[in-house]
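Fold it.
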Amino acid sequence: MNKDQVKGKVKDVAGRVERQVGEWTGDEGKQVHGAAKQVEGKVQNAWGDVKDAAKDANDKRPENRTSVPDSVEAESEESRRKAS
């Protein structure tokens, strides 16, 4: 979970609370502001999801892997012996 996802979730929850308080008290301004804050939180959370997915996809790319599978190392060693 990245910081955008956390901040987005916090805004979403805070917006829900504010909207609900507005409904209970009959304060339309609070309802509208709470709903807007909820939307802002959902958008920020979604942006965090996109960033997370992009990072995961980039980490899975073969050129970004830090370790070489044993089978590849064995093939490379064998190829070097044959070339000598």
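The radius of gyration is 25 Å.
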